[in-house]
Structure formats: structure tokens, C-alpha cells
Design goal:
8-stranded mixed sheet; 15 helices
């Protein structure tokens, strides 16, 4: 295992810990989220789980089961069913759902929500569920269009006398020179296209394409002929287009059914100030009628039948699914049976519980039995001390923290006694404390001081007296 060499005057550095980012870094720092370390399920090509892979530690059975579900989704054989992740808090249910979305790819829509989100004062509960399902169904539209594509070699607006006034001039047309690997072409274009170019901030040296039918202009990037080490701006460089300037090109656009519903439910008004103010005053959420959804589905089906578009079912992830009530569960059954249903992943940490919205219906995980019958149920296991230590080390690497001798073992002990989440939560406050003391790594004493300042959930519960009040003592 590789160790980091430091001057003899400093304290020893923890094994396999990454150095923290420099204080005066010019790069944009990204926020470290609770699941930043999850990159996938960590499976071999045969579908077997690696002991530690893609940010996961342990949970081999659950990861292999989710790998089977990923293959079912890719082969379009999982519609009408759902995956239910059950297990204690902090055992990786949300991480598994995110890993499934990583495995399916960035082009597959992933729509996460929490069960309590359905209780909105603006729209009905069933409408929130339907909206989430529609946002998780993608539509990949492929169009073959006539375009002019190339690197801009000339951009010259031609001016003429303004026919409406004796004073001033107006742009009558614009001369655009485009170059590809095969040749060059000079175009004389309408002044409205010149206005679109100004909006896109197109200059000589940019690679663009212009749609022949609509006149829409799209900037692809800067020609790589202009790439040099002296450019300070963050720019995307693209190679010189091949073929002729005038060509037929296949353009691919990804939208979701939720996007189409929203666009048709809220038609855009004019561009004047009153229309803009009217849109600001309107309510943030608009309830989409079933009639509108059927019309959108009819148009989408027509595109699919013509071969212009392809439906891409995505993933709906509902965490804390026991927060849904009996009405939502009934509607969820109907949504699962619809012809265009996405993959549904549910997660809960409840055992036997009363189904919300009823008074006497007790069901496993707080989910009605008729919905449980449609689910493939995957259980997540609690972590042992060794696995907690690996996860803590992984989070320390992601957050760029150094751990001193014995810190990892102490945090693993805290995780086993309290919870793994508590052990991970101690990392960043302890690093603040060590920084204030002038140290560049977390020491065991910092963890001890954190335990004096903060309580874990179990220690806090022990302080509650028999009358429900707080005893005041720590243990």
C-alpha cells in the first residue's frame, strides 16, 4: 500500500489518504454530496459483485440483484414491475438506486423523489406521481435536415439605406464564408440569421451549422486550429467538419414526456414586458389534464411509428415509499400497468407498519400487498466494523481529508456503536477542529472532542427520561 512521504517535522500521514485540495486553487470546486463516491454497481462482466468497487463496500447480494434489474431494463423486459429496496437506515438503499441510474447511462432519465413530496397544496397527490412518471420517460427524436456546416471564415454584414426612414442604415443581408475539409462556400443570408448569429456570439473561427429550412443557427464550438496554450478562456475546441459545406445531417434531441406536457400546458406568450410579468405572477405548478396527456401520447406514437423518434424508459426512484397513502398506492398500481411505464425503484426502512391512510391495514414495509406482489424485493445488510472503516476511508479520500494513526479504527468503533452515518458525519467537523489547532490531519483526540460536543441518535435516545423529558446527563 502506498504511503505519502512528508518532512520529518510533521506528523505521519494516514495510509491511502488523498491530499486535500490546495487552498488557492483556480479550478471550480464542486460540492461533495453524500453519494459523490458512488460511480456504479461495481460488477464484473459476468455480473458478480467485486468486494469493493465503484465506490461500494459490501452489499454483494443487493448489488448483484440490482445488476440483474439493470440488464432487464436494458432489454426492455422490466415494465409493469418495480424494485423494492428494504433495509435499515444507512445501509445504502439510495446509493443502490443512484448506482442503477449510473449503469443505465446519462442519456436515460432518472427522476428521484421522496414519498412526502406528493402532499402538495398546489396540485393533487396523483398528479405529482403522474408528473414524476412522465419526467422519467425520455423521447429521443432523430431528424435528418439539410444544413450548412463549417468553420466561419468570413462574417460580413452588408448595409443598405433604411426604406422606412431617410436617416440611418439597416443590414440588408450578411455574407458568411464556411470551410470544411473538402472545400469552402460563400453564403448570402437573411438579416434575421445575422441577428441569430449575434445572439450566439459567433465570430470568425467558430464551427457552426445553419439549418437550410428554418434558418436556425447553432454554434458547435471553436475550431481546433485556434487552440493554443495562450488561450485563457474555457473553450470547447472541435475539429474541422468533414464532407461538403451543404449536406444532410442527422440531428438527435432528447426530451421527456414531462417536458412536452409542460410546454403544451403553459404556452409561451409574447416577448413584451406584460407577458413576462404575467408569467411571473402565475402559479409555479400547472396541473396537466389527462386529455392533454393523451394528445401528447398520440403525437409521440405518430413520431415513433414514422421512425422519427424512440421512447427511452427511464427510472423513477421513490424514497421513503411508506409515506405514500392508500390512494397513492392504488394510483401507482395503475401507472405500473400503463403501456409507457418507466422502471420504478422504491425504498423503505420500515418493517410491519400500518398503511398510511388506513386505520387497521398492517402490511410489510407499510406497502399494500397487491403492490408488493408486483415488486422484486432486495434486502440491504447492515455493515460490520471492517466495512465501516472502508467506507469512512473512502469518504475521507473524496473529501480530501488526512487521517492520523488510530483515527480510522476509532471512527469504525463509533460507527458500530452508533451508526455509520454518525461516524462519517464526524469527519468534517473533526477536520475543522484539527485545522484550528494548526494540524494538517485528524487525530484521535479530535474524534474524542467531537463526542463531547455531539450526540449520536442512540446516545440521545438514552437521555430521554421515563416521563418523556430530557434527563440532562450524557450517558
Amino acid at each position: 500500500m502506498k504511503t505519502t512521504t512528508v518532512p520529518s517535522t510533521s506528523a505521519p500521514v494516514a495510509h491511502n489518504a488523498m491530499p486535500p485540495p490546495p487552498a488557492a486553487s483556480t479550478a471550480r470546486s464542486s460540492r461533495v454530496a453524500p453519494h459523490s463516491h458512488i460511480k456504479g454497481l461495481g460488477l464484473t462482466p459476468e455480473g458478480l459483485a467485486l468486494p469493493d468497487g465503484a465506490g461500494f463496500v459490501g452489499q454483494t447480494n443487493a448489488r448483484e440483484a440490482c445488476g440483474v434489474v439493470v440488464e432487464l431494463v436494458k432489454s426492455r423486459k422490466f415494465s409493469g414491475r418495480a424494485l423494492l429496496l428494504v433495509g435499515a437506515p444507512g445501509t445504502g438503499k439510495t446509493a443502490l438506486a443512484l448506482a442503477v441510474s449510473h449503469e443505465l447511462g446519462v442519456k436515460v432519465p432518472f427522476c428521484p423523489m421522496v414519498g412526502s413530496e406528493v402532499y402538495s397544496t398546489e396540485v393533487k397527490k396523483t398528479e405529482v406521481l403522474a408528473e414524476a412518471f412522465r419526467r422519467a420517460i425520455g423521447l429521443r427524436i432523430k431528424e435528418t435536415k439539410e444544413v450548412y456546416e463549417g468553420e466561419v471564415t468570413e462574417l460580413t454584414p452588408a448595409e443598405a439605406e433604411n426604406p422606412l426612414s431617410g436617416y440611418g442604415k439597416t443590414v440588408s443581408h450578411v455574407i458568411v464564408g464556411l470551410k470544411t475539409v473538402k472545400g469552402t462556400k460563400q453564403l448570402r443570408l437573411d438579416p434575421t440569421i445575422y441577428e441569430a448569429m449575434l445572439k450566439e456570439k459567433i465570430v470568425v473561427g467558430d464551427v457552426i451549422y445553419i439549418e437550410a429550412n428554418t434558418g436556425a443557427v447553432k454554434r458547435v464550438g471553436r475550431s481546433d486550429a485556434y487552440a493554443s496554450s495562450y488561450d485563457l478562456e474555457s473553450e470547447t475546441y472541435v475539429p474541422l467538419p468533414k464532407g461538403d459545406v451543404h449536406k444532410r445531417k442527422e440531428l438527435v434531441q432528447d426530451v421527456t414526456l414531462g417536458d412536452l406536457d409542460a410546454a403544451n400546458a403553459r404556452p409561451q406568450g409574447g416577448q413584451d414586458i406584460m407577458s413576462v410579468m404575467g408569467n411571473l405572477i402565475k402559479s409555479g405548478r400547472t396541473e396537466v389534464t389527462e386529455k392533454l396527456r393523451k394528445e401528447v401520447n398520440k403525437v409521440v406514437k405518430g413520431y415513433v411509428d414514422q421512425g422519427v423518434a424512440e421512447v427511452v424508459p427511464g427510472v423513477v426512484f421513490i424514497d421513503e415509499v411508506h409515506m405514500l397513502d392508500i390512494e397513492c398506492f392504488t394510483y401507482l398500481n395503475a401507472l405500473l400497468e400503463s403501456p409507457m411505464a418507466p422502471t420504478v425503484i422504491l425504498a423503505t426502512n420500515r418493517g410491519n407498519a400500518i398503511v398510511r391512510g388506513t386505520t387497521d391495514v398492517v402490511s410489510p414495509h407499510g406497502v399494500p400487498v397487491d403492490l408488493l406482489d408486483r415488486c422484486l424485493i432486495v434486502k440491504t445488510d447492515t455493515y460490520n466494523r471492517e466495512q465501516i472503516a472502508k467506507v469512512v476511508q473512502l469518504r475521507a479520500n473524496v473529501e480530501g481529508l488526512k487521517l492520523g494513526p488510530g483515527v480510522l479504527e476509532r471512527l469504525a468503533e463509533e460507527g458500530e456503536r452508533g451508526s455509520m452515518r454518525y461516524a462519517i458525519q464526524l469527519l468534517t467537523p473533526a477536520s475543522i477542529l484539527s485545522g484550528l489547532a494548526g494540524r494538517n490531519q485528524i487525530e484521535v483526540d479530535d474524534i474524542g472532542e467531537m463526542n463531547e460536543l455531539f450526540l449520536d441518535a442512540k446516545a440521545s435516545a438514552r437521555n430521554i427520561g421515563s416521563d418523556g423529558g430530557f434527563d440532562g446527563g450524557r450517558m
